[in-house]
Each structure stands twice: as structure tokens, then as C-alpha cells.
Amino acid sequence: GYTNPAYWTGPGWAWREASNRTQPYYWDDSTLNGDAQPVVGVNWFEAVAYARWLSAQTGREYRLPTEAEWEKAARGPDGLIWPWGNEWRDGMANSNEAGHDVTIAVGNYPDGASPYGALDMAGNVWEWCSSSWEDYPLAIEDEWSEQYLDQRQKYHGRIILGCSYRCSKESVRGANRYYYDARNHFDIVGIRLASYSPS
Questions:
Q1: How do strand 126-132 and strand 189-190 relate by DSSP bridges?
Q2: Which of the 8 DSSP states describes residue 75?
């Protein structure tokens, strides 16, 4: 679906055409994008297009989580500092302290799961959210609507959360937020999709 404009936002398709990309960066790099590792090198435009493609293939809606959804999934109902609790514990996340210096297979830290059972929400890779960069308090709006996804803000800034294997324990906190230009790709940024529970 990479070459199908139906899956892309307007600005995303313009970026793809201008950059002449046919696949994400690092796509064929087995060190960074091994079968069990989180996919990296995907920019925000590609992440949105992938979610739309997957939705079309499966008949079930997938999307990028909003910033608020991602944070709730990572911190639980009590607003924990890290997914597993309010005290740092070694061996719970692929952060700088783990010493891997690369992404590792998803689910390697089952004891670091969030209260909702979500894995790898601290470290391994930053993860794109649908949300644009804004200061708190956040406005309540449909962040998966076409209008929201197409809006062009300064630097096209989109939220990333979770930090990466290069981040220290202070930075892999569930409340740590940052943003990148939607056009940028990095070997430390990947995606996590959200979907509604089947009824």
C-alpha cells in the first residue's frame, strides 16, 4: 500500500512524492528492523498510512493512539511514573541502563508491563501518537479525523512518547513527552497502534 495515495494524508502523500520514497528508512537493515524488533525509521506520515492500510486489509479500525490514550495505557489509572510502578527497577525496560544499545525483540521485559498489560512502553523505541504538539491543558478533539491529521502546524510537530534504548531511566517515564517533525525518521522511533476492543 505504500504507493496508494488513498492511505496517506494530503501532506503525507506530498512528502512521499517529493522524497520519492518507496519504503521506510532502514527497512532492509536486519540490525534495526529484525523480525521481532519494533519497526523503526518510519516517519509520522508513514505511520498513519500504515494504520489506514492495516485497517483496510483487516476490516478493523487501527490508528495511532492519541497522546492521552498512550499515557493512560503506560501509566494506568494511578498515574505511575513507570509502567510497573513508582520505583525504578533494573531489568524492566530496554533503556540506556540495560546496555543493549539497539532495539531488542518486543516483549523481552514482561515484568515491565503496564497495569493494562501493555509491553515496552518504557524504552526500546519512541512511539508516534496522532496528537500534534500542544501545551497542557490539551484540547479535546478527534485526533484521527482527516481535518486534524491534515492540519499543518509549526514544524509539523507530532508527539512521540516512551523514549528509546538510548534514554536513561529518568527519560523513559510515562509522562515524558517530546515531538518530531512528521517528515522525520529515526532509528529510535517506531509505532504502536490502537484499536477498539471487539464487542
A1: parallel
A2: H
The CA angle 5-30-54, to the nearest 5 degrees, is: 30
Cα–Cα distance list, 118 to 84, 104, 110, 186 (Å): 10, 16, 9, 23
Which triple of cell numbers denotes residue 71?
499515557
DSSP structural state of residue 82: B
Lookup: cell for 19: 522524497
pLDDT (tens, 9 = 90+) of the chain, 199 residues, equals 899 999 999 999 999 999 999 999 999 999 999 999 999 999 999 999 999 999 999 999 999 999 999 999 999 999 999 999 999 999 999 999 999 999 999 999 999 999 999 999 999 999 999 998 876 666 777 777 777 777 755 446 899 999 999 999 999 999 999 999 999 999 999 999 999 887 6
26: Cβ contacts below 8 Å, ≥ 6 apart: 32, 33, 40, 41, 185, 187
* pTM reported for the whole predicted model: 0.91
Query: Which residue in 179, 187, 184 sits closest to 46, CA to CA?
Result: 184
